[in-house]
Amino acid sequence: MLDAETSTPVYATPAMTAAPDPELLDEPRPIRLSGFIALGLGLLSFTALFGAPMVIVPVLGTLSALWALRPYQGQRPVGLTVATIGLFIAVLFGVWGVTHRYLRQQTMSDQAVQFAADWLDLLAQGDIELAVELRAHPARRQSETMPLDEYYLHSEDGRRTMSEFRENEAIREVLQAGDRVRWELAATPRVYTLNGRALADTVWKDQSGAASTDVRVGLEYLPASGDEPAQWKVDACDVYIPRS
To answer: What's the pTM?
Structure first.
């Protein structure tokens, strides 16, 4: 365009602005590290399946997730999604671990009670040799072709084992009562682990009065090994004395 007085061309210059991009002015979203900690603990919560002490892992994972998911103001913090995932995994493995352990304990308790009851019935029926065999480890038991009465009557090891068995005070009490006994559980079975061994304690009371004392039958659970199936063996039998 030409100026009317000077005839000098004048050009329009576009306006320049120093205003920054509005997106650059936004404050960064807060980060909740507890959400990522919850995810890590959640992924480790599978360890709850391997032992009661490890249940602490999903518990800590759940607490961390709940802390990360606490209410907030303003922008949504980073870490809430991973906290939700960690919470789900921790609860899943925590419930799974506790339920699995409870069902296993209940199953072992029922099996221990049945095995102990059958063993006491063997003594009541006078099948002492078989009852003695069930106290030995399966690898040290006599073969199926060996007559047990001959082994415990004529072999030196058999006679010594039978003698030691009959010297037990609780065994003497049970044998004297004979088949008059009516055994019933006198206490809740206790299933526990000691030095890597799965053990169970059962306490029995004779309802007929033929046996004057309560009897504790302790058992050991032997997991399957090679061709041998899982099974129980009698670990101890003694007079039960309640704790004062």
So the answer is: 0.73
